[in-house]
Amino acid sequence: MKFQILCLLGFVVLVCGQNTHLKTYRKIAGTEAKLPVAPKAADPVAEVKQPAKVAEPIAEVKDAVPPADEVEEPVKVAEEPAVVDEPEVEAVIPRREDLGLHSLVAYIAELQHYINTLHERLNQKTVPTTSTAGSIAFNAIRTGNLGPVAQDTVVTFDLIDVNVGNNFQSNTAFYVPLDGLYYFTYKFSGTNVIVDLMMKPDDVSSGSVVQRSGVGDGSLSPSGGGAIVMDLVAGNQVYLRLEADDSGTPTIISDPTNRLISFSGFMLYQRV
């Protein structure tokens, strides 16, 4: 029991002695013992310095000269053609300054159209008009037979039911009043006969055959005839002629009822 008390007292003495030594140490050090404070870590982001801006080098300006093959050629503008002083040509050369908002392509197209029109009209002998077309026409009928004939004979007509302009004269021929294109048609009936469409330039000259039509012996149809368009000038004469043959018997037949022999024509266009 005594031993235990002695051990307890010894422990108390030991503890008190340690506390005394600790206080003495603190006084010597001049400060109370404190836990060391860890230094504040530096902010890595804040310490990162922005790199200095490097001045961009000034590019040297040089006069760039493109290669010769890359130089664009200036657009060539079509020159205006000279106005041709031809009264018979009604087309007018389109002028670029009058086109307004039209593009150059439209101008070229119009110019090409004008050239084509002029070329066509220069290649034609006639310029169609309708000023007198329809005012010249005739229709002549023979109501009886003609023949037999021993020599070539001009066909005469006894019934002129149409004669607009009074150009079918002497019951025989059409006298051309104006230069232009004319259409003629004729018909006849007979057997083994030939009828010619004739034209002569004037009253003095002899006529020439323009078209020949015939009906042979034993033909399936006893009728003949023809039609033609002719380019004529004023003063020409157009008529029909019955040809003779060695037999001396050619005859064309007709009657007042059937009117098998006729000759007609009219002007298509006037040439000016």
Describe this structure in words.
The chain is of the alpha+beta class. The chain is 19% helix and 26% strand. Among the domains are: 75-123, no CATH class; 137-270, Jelly Rolls. The protein has helices spanning 2-29, 44-47, 104-123; strands at 137-142, 153-154, 159-164, 168-169, 173-175, 180-189, 193-200, 208-215, 223-232, 237-242, 261-270. The strands form two sheets. Strands 2, 4, 5, 7, 8 and 10 form a six-stranded antiparallel β-sheet that branches. A five-stranded antiparallel β-sheet has the order 3-1-11-6-9, with no helix packed on it. The longest helix has 28 residues, at 2-29. It is elongated, with a radius of gyration of 62 Å. 17% of the residues are buried. The model is unreliable at 31-38, 44-48 and 125-131 (pLDDT under 50).
Order of helices and strands, N to C? HHHEEEEEEEEEEE
The top level CATH class name of the domain at 137-270:
Mainly Beta
Poorly predicted regions: 31-38, 44-48, 125-131
Overall number of strands:
11
**Count of DSSP-assigned helices:** 3
Which fold does the CATH topology of the domain at 137-270 refer to? Jelly Rolls
Proportion in β-strands? 25-35%
Q: What global shape is seen?
A: elongated
Find the structural class using helix and strand composition: alpha+beta
Rg over CA atoms: 62 Å
Report how far the terminal alpha carbons are from each other: 169 Å
User: How would you characterize the largest beta sheet?
Assistant: 6 strands, antiparallel
Mean pLDDT: 74
Helix content: 10-25%
Write the CATH architecture name of the domain at 137-270: Sandwich
